[in-house]
Amino acid sequence: MHATIKESATAQSGAAQYGCCRLCGAPLATTFVNLGMTPLCESFLAAGETDKMEAYFPLHALVCGECFLVQLREYVQPVNIFSEYAYFSSFSTSWVEHARRYCEMAVARFGLGSTSQVFEIASNDGYLLQHFLPLGVPVLGIEPAANVAEAARRKNIPTLVEFFGLRLARRLVSEGQRADLIIGNNVLAQVPDLNDFAAGMAHLLAPEGVITLEFPHLERLIVENQFDTIYHEHFSYFSLLTIDRLAQRHQLRIFDVEQISTHGGSLRVYLCRADATHTRSASVNALLSHEREIGFEDIASYARFAAKVHRTKRQLLSFLIGCKEKGAKICGYGAPGKGNTLLNYCGIGMDFLECTVDRNPYKHGRVTPGMHVPIYPVSTIDELRPDYLLILPWNLKREIVEQMRHVSSWGCKMVVPIPDVEVIDPREFAT
Fold first, then answer.
1. Helices 194-204 and 166-174 sit at what angle, rounded to 10 degrees?
2. What is the pTM of this model?
3. Strand ranges of the sheet holding 252-260, from the earlier edge strand across to the other edge
């Protein structure tokens, strides 16, 4: 009896410490992985700011024992993260092409035309909505980052600079607008109030309208050890089971799901109103059953992930130390959010990297948060001629190898850190 009381008190203490689930409200007490203290992953500093105090927050992912949503606590409100943002989607050619193919598919599958209305939430710089314009489909972007929204407007894409939720949805409906298609690509993870967001989508949706959401699949994160996709700008990490629970809470239902390759392995989930006529695909039940079989409704399955993460950190550091001991010159490629999680968790700074490079001019002349690795244009690689390129946006490794294949002329190799250290000779890599 005393042991039971003690265990119960410990669980209650943990729940009090970690707060409540943002989906179902249950107490949080189980660690998924603790990556220590890190700054916000997109908080790039100007070169002259490196001697100032930098804000760090716990990067401690938890899992709900009731609905099994993996999540971070909300240490920083979205307005302080996304009002000005350093990420511009259009700098990835493969991502823009992915968006183009999606738009053509959506028009054909759902019969969209000149009388339809498409909304994209977190529309960024218009990387996706631009492809609807030549197809004659009216669009509206919703993007909270004013600097990014301005880039979309320059492409003639009407864009509201606002955060999406039930309040905005009610305003749009009061103005006579309804959505035939709502698109949310890699935004759901960035929403701390999931229920308000889902309620807004449900309110804005036309009776036979469709919502498509794309997000990295939790299964791929676990199986492929993608711990660097965990950062403060991502509040939640989803399985189809958790999306199904979210949908049901707001009179929505999943009628189709696709497994796609973007961002290391994602899901594209199709939702409609609970009373809409869209037929449910067999792939939905198949994936829900698969997730149950692999333990996504067993809290013990989640607790095993941390050991894999610790092993990868040791492996990567051992490799980099060995290279530096031999006098090798190492540069990074890319300055993505996931890269900053990796650099900070592993403690990789200028003692390992000469610099990192990025195609986004917004980041040039700045330094990475926490580790303060300087960010230069991609052309810097040809000047420094490193022995190794550490690919930080590993999900784009094929695109990057193709772009940078010429570095093999001086013997440079590429290093992919996730899921395990992989050394690539660009001369031998088939894209």
1. 20
2. 0.86
3. 159-160, 139-142, 118-121, 179-185, 205-216, 266-273, 252-260
